[in-house]
Amino acid sequence: MNGVLIIDKPAGLTSHDVVNRVRRILQQPSVGHLGTLDPLATGVLPLVTGNLTRLAQFYGASEKTYEGVIRFGFATDTYDSDGEVQGPVQAVNVSLEQIRVLASRFAGLIEQMPPPFSAKKIKGVPAYKLARKHQEVALKPVQVEIKEFEILGLQGDQASFRARVASGTYMRSIAHDMGRQLGCGAHLQSLRRTVLGEFDLSQAHTLEELDGVCKAGTIDEVFIHPRRLLPEFPCVTASEDAAALIRNGRAVNLPELSQARQVKVFAGQRELIAIATRIAGTLFRPRIVLAAEPVRQLASRK
């Protein structure tokens, strides 16, 4: 079973927890995700199955959009509401305009310190494993890009926001840094990812919905049509002879796409067989070859 589906991740589960549940629902061992969400966070979690797990390499730099709430008044050790309170809780007396002015300082390219409870590695060890053991977490600041950061409203000590960011940006760190600059502390109260790359919430399904369509034998309904994947790459339908060459890693001529650098190669309408790169003129060589087996319906498990 080769495909891409979008899960609306619930709060309280890690991304790996969701992957494991989907493996059991689909009865498919080969399942991966295209972008980790913290346990606190909800929303768009794209999953890849079968040989399409090899597409993950093309999504490492995908842009993301989030909506959430920042709570001012105290910081936490995880920079979100799952962590332990750090220091005394302080009264907060700020206006919406003050928060918006502060948020504007985070727009564009900035230096950001990742949270100590993160997957960033220190000498090969994830930072969160050291933090859990109360060991020193010596992280270094990294450059990230905040493309949009809008404060939508302020109710008491909680500010709602929408942000569009480049890959590698931690909204938890933004919340923590805003609280530090205000001198009152802050943390990320809630977070929902609404967009990752070309995927958004309109395409997402809950784990319960996924289980339901599997039991009904209508699994095709939840998979993204492969021609909608990686929209920056043009699609080409290979002839039977060209497809056979591509499946064996051989270069082929694709004259109708002579100007494209990389293309998605199909056998028929739904069978994505390769991502190919132009090497000269109209000659393309497969960058990755994907299994020819199309997504198939699961047997009913009623």
Shape: elongated
**CATH topology heading of the domain at 64-196:** Pseudouridine synthase
Question: Can you give the mean pLDDT?
Answer: 90
> How many strands?
19
β-strand percent reads 25-35%
What this model shows, in words?
The protein has six helices and 19 strands. With about 300 residues, it is an alpha+beta fold. Strands 1, 2, 3, 4, 7, 10, 11, 12, 13 and 14 form a ten-stranded mixed sheet that branches. It has a five-stranded mixed sheet with strand order 15-17-18-19-16, with helices on one face. Strand 8 and strand 9 form a beta hairpin. Helix 1 runs parallel beside helix 5 (about 205-215). The chain is elongated and about 70 Å long. Mean pLDDT is about 90; it is low at about 295-300.
Looking at this protein, list some descriptive labels.
single chain, 302 residues, alpha+beta, Pseudouridine synthase, Archaeosine Trna-guanine Transglycosylase, Chain: A, domain 4, ten-stranded mixed beta sheet, elongated, disordered C terminus
Fold topology:
Elements: E1 3-9, H1 15-26, E2 31-33, E3 42-49, E4 64-72, E5 75-76, E6 85-86, H2 96-104, E7 108-112, E8 121-122, E9 125-126, H3 127-132, E10 142-155, E11 158-165, H4 171-182, E12 186-196, E13 199-200, E14 204-205, H5 207-216, E15 235-237, H6 240-247, E16 252-253, E17 262-267, E18 271-280, E19 283-289
Summarize this, please?
The protein has 302 residues and is of the alpha+beta class. It is 19% helix and 35% strand.
